[in-house]
Amino acid sequence: MVNHEDGMTGADVQRIARAIAGRGGEPPRALVVLGSGLGRVSNRVEASVEVPFESLPGMPSTSVVGHAGGFVLGFLGGLPVILQSGRFHAYEGHGSDVLGLTVRVAAELGVSMLVTTNAAGGVRDDLHPGDLVVLDDHLNLQGRNPLVGPVLTGEVRFPDMTEAYDSELRAMAEAEARRLGTPLKRGVYGAVLGPSFETPAEVRMLARLGVDVVGMSTVPEVITARARGLRCLAISMVTNPAAGRTKRPLTHDEVLEVGDRAGAELADVLVAVMGRIAATAQPGGAK
Predict the structure, then answer these.
(1) How far apart are CA 202 and CA 242, in angstroms?
(2) To the nearest whole percent, how much of the chain has pLDDT over 70?
(3) One of 30, 59, 89, 198 is an active-site residue; which one?
(4) What CA–CA distance (Å, rounded) separates 185 from 171?
């Protein structure tokens, strides 16, 4: 991991963005972030160009199994995207500036939307491993915010989070999931710090607060995206029942196993949504 004692600056963001743009290809319209065990989505990117994090100037590295640590440029469902395989978590010791770094870089490249996925524990009783949940809200329980510090160029100090997750993109995802015959539920995501899994008492608390799925990511990216004016779509894959809903111990291996097994359905939904967005940009395409 690269330590940035003074934080990642706007100049750092621009430097990384220029290095990515130098790899060529059509400017991306969306940043797609993959959660733990969901790396197989990157295999669906066409005309792909891989950009490892270590090849970019000043880019931190990831340290979590199941997070490859790089970008993939190309087309997903016909839409030019920058796909992020491997994300940064607060529990790795990264500062708040790093948690929103890739969103800021993608915004510099001109993307207009963030499509993010995650592996999550199912808090609600009707959620089971392999279920997909499109998010309609979140609770930030991490005790930190990626916007703390100086306001970077292109961001607002106090972004409105009333509709953090775009209702039109969510409806699009639900429509495509129905067409594919893939069940897609709705829910509220609770972001906790980690890296320990939650206790049964904490899960009961989360349920009372209105949380449906719980994880250790996503929210910092969404907050940063909203500060940049990006539209957001987020889909959680339930990889395990939250603590207290199962008698067996929870492990990260289980998260990766379910993500690998059920990730194909999520990949199909993402490709379909990207294809629908791409179609709206074509002459005569639906708005």
Answers:
(1) 10
(2) 87
(3) 89
(4) 12
- Examine the pLDDT at 73 and tell me if it is beyond 90: yes
Considering the candidates 119, 120, 227, 278, report the single residue annotated as catalytic. Answer: 119
- Which one of 216, 225, 234, 243 is the catalytic residue? 216
Predicted pLDDT of residue 259: 67
Q: What is the pLDDT of residue 257?
A: 72
Q: Is the pLDDT of residue 24 over 90?
A: no
Report the distance separating Cα 107 and Cα 111, nearest Å.
Answer: 5
In this predicted structure, what is the pLDDT of residue 225?
A: 98
Which of 50, 57, 42 shows the shortest CA–CA distance to 4? 57
- Does the annotation count 138 as an active-site position? no
Is 113 noted as a catalytic residue in this protein? no
Q: Which of 8, 17, 42, 67 is catalytic?
A: 67
* Catalytic site includes residue 61: no
Where helices occur in 109-249 by DSSP H, the ranges are 167-180, 200-209, 219-227
Query: Hey, what are 259's tokens?
Result: 């993500």
Integer angstrom CA distances of residue 37 from 24, 131, 132, 143: 28, 14, 14, 26
Q: Does 134 have pLDDT greater than 90?
A: yes
Output the average pLDDT for the chain.
88
Per the annotation, the verdict on 164 as an active-site residue is no
At residue 84's C-alpha, the angle toward residues 24 and 35, to 5°, is 165
| 217 flagged as catalytic | yes
pLDDT at position 97 over 60: yes
Question: Among the options 19, 48, 50, 91, which is catalytic?
Answer: 91
Q: Which amino acid is at 2?
A: V
